[in-house]
């Protein structure tokens, strides 16, 4: 069955389902680009920053972070490293506050994905009910096998197509939604792990009386 025939057979609920599918695909593409960008650049950049800091090259560490401010962890590290004369407690608070500020970006569109996942099957169910109503409305017991049979067949087709379409949209969105949720959890773990390393390095330098921040310009 051609796509246009499926859309016609599914009835009125196919319109919002089509809108949901187009929206889901657009948001999924955006999220894929975002996570691919993080995967390709972030880990190497973080290791270089930590190595610079271990070698007491705070200026180079901050300069590298400033070149990568489109990465969440770079903005988090900058928020702490650009503090002057911060105590270890202040440094940790800056890291935690900046990390909390990045959570909405990392979880972006998750509520929309959840809405599509929940609503698409319900729209399919609505299409099923409407199709069955149309089938019974056109059913004439005295005309079995006659012209009214076409209306019954059309109603059943609408019920089945709309149900299947709703499930397909929900399953497709659920697959990517859960994938992005897993990537978010990994990102939070990575931020906590590397943030802890940076905090430890800062604390050691602070306790040795070394200047743990970059000089103001």
TrEMBL record:
Intracellular or extracellular location(s): Cell membrane; Membrane
Keyword field: Cell membrane, Membrane, Protein transport, Transmembrane, Transmembrane helix, Transport
Membrane-crossing segments per the record: 6-29, 116-139, 159-180
Signal peptide: none
Any matching Pfam family: MotA_ExbB
Residue ranges of domain MotA/TolQ/ExbB proton channel in the record: 70-192
Family (UniProt): Belongs to the exbB/tolQ family.
Name of the molecule in the record: MotA/TolQ/ExbB proton channel family protein
Species of origin: Plectonema radiosum NIES-515
């Amino acid at each position: 069955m051609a796509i246009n025939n499926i859309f016609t057979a599914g009835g009125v609920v196919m319109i919002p389902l089509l809108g949901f599918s187009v929206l889901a695909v657009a948001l999924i593409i955006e999220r894929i680009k975002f996570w691919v960008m993080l995967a390709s650049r972030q880990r190497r950049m973080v290791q270089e920053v930590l190595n610079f800091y271990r070698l007491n090259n705070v200026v180079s560490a901050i300069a590298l972070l400033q070149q990568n401010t489109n990465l969440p962890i770079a903005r988090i590290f900058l928020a702490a490293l650009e503090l002057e004369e911060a105590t270890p407690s202040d440094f940790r608070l800056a890291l935690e506050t900046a990390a909390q500020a990045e959570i909405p970006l990392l979880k972006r569109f998750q509520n929309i994905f959840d809405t599509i996942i929940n609503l698409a099957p319900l729209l399919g169910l609505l299409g099923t009910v409407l199709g069955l109503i149309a089938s019974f409305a056109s059913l004439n017991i005295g005309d079995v096998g006659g012209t009214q049979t076409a209306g019954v067949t059309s109603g059943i087709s609408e019920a089945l197509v709309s149900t299947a379409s709703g499930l397909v949209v929900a399953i497709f969105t659920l697959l990517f939604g859960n994938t992005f949720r897993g990537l978010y959890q990994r990102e939070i773990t990575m931020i906590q792990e590397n943030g802890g390393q940076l905090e430890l390095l800062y604390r050691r330098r602070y306790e040795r009386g070394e200047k743990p921040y970059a000089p103001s310009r």
